[in-house]
Write a structure and sequence with these properties.
By secondary structure, the chain is mostly helical. It has one domain (3-121). It has six helices and three strands; from the N terminus they run αβββααααα. α1 (3-22) packs across α2.
Length: 122
């Protein structure tokens, strides 16, 4: 069996688990490119890496669907599936983050730590 055929077999195995988990109808691999972009109910399109991530990390059922819907509703902003799964949401992208003020002691400690790291690398 060629490497390509083994990859396609693994990709299709992931796909079957994903279909069962998400309870979606599978339309096919776009352009018949197994392991590329998968189409579901002519509405959802996921690349193989996101399908694999969803299965390997036991993401909550439906999260990937909410992620794609949120991505479409928040164009041109985009969050990758990994970050979305880890908790990043679109409303967080627009929040102002207050810069941290370091004390002199903290600054000196950071400088020392940086010098140690730099010295270790040389």
């Amino acid at each position: 069996m060629t490497l390509k055929k083994r990859f396609e077999a693994v990709a299709n195995e992931y796909l079957l688990k994903f279909i069962k988990k998400q309870d979606l109808d599978f339309d096919g691999w776009i352009g018949d490119d197994v392991g590329g972009i998968a189409s579901f109910i002519c509405q959802y399109f996921f690349n193989f890496d996101d399908i694999r991530y969803d299965i390997d990390n036991k993401c909550k059922k439906g999260l990937i669907l909410h992620w794609q819907d949120d991505c479409l509703e928040n164009k041109p902003n985009y969050i990758n599936y990994y970050s979305y799964h880890k908790g990043l949401k679109f409303d967080m992208l627009n929040k102002e983050v207050e810069p941290k003020e370091f004390t002199t002691e903290e600054t000196e400690k950071l400088k020392e730590d940086f010098k140690k790291l730099l010295h270790e690398k040389l």
